[in-house]
Predict the 3D structure of the following.
Amino acid sequence: MSTFRSLALLALLVVGIAGAADDDAELDDILRNPTIGNYKGYAEFKMGRYESARRIWEALDRAGFGEAAFNLGILYEDGLGVDADIQRALAHYRRGAENGSVKAQFRVGKLFWLGAPGVPPDREEGRRYLAMAAAHGDREAAAYLANGADAKGPLAEADLALAAGQSQRAAEILAAAALDGDVRAQTRLAWCYEAGRGVARDLSMAAQWFERAAQGGDPEAMYALSVMHATGSGREQDDNLARQWLQRSAAGGYAPAISELRP
């Protein structure tokens, strides 16, 4: 499917079809095009419509789409539209990892590597999942494997704060690094604002940090910015900018963007 057609389909799904996950025909369309369906779920997530996002991702998860399982894990870990439940989150992350989501592989690996409230550290299990993510090009996972317990820097420090249940402290660490120009910290801070993790949920602030990180060359931020422009959430709706950022994200090697652009 071409980029233009993909974005056009997304616009039809998002604009004027609120609650599309309840409609069997629309759900069939989502399942026939899982990458577009996941994109739609992410758009619903950005607009705070967690129930709709969850229904879409649950359908895709049942079909074995790894990124949907990862996204469900986020909902359960952060308690977005559902009761926070780290064990359910971990189960979704594991399934996503086994179904090919590099983000889920890294998240599971990091949870076991560092531990978290309700998740005792297990370095052997953590190493297994981090190795899976590193093998698929995740540089943060590779850094954990290379540096072990001696991992340094603001991202590692923020991860340790999260592992201790100190989400506000983690956001403060990321904010300081982001202001100093750390592009990955900027993306991570944007996610904090988008999900309300350690800070009040603020889609406008999320968009500002995603844009700053995207301009700095982070493909993950480029993808997030593409969704914002495609849906008009946090940024003005602009199909041309959405397409440009999606193409740049794919050129930077970001797997979801590559999948989205695949014919």
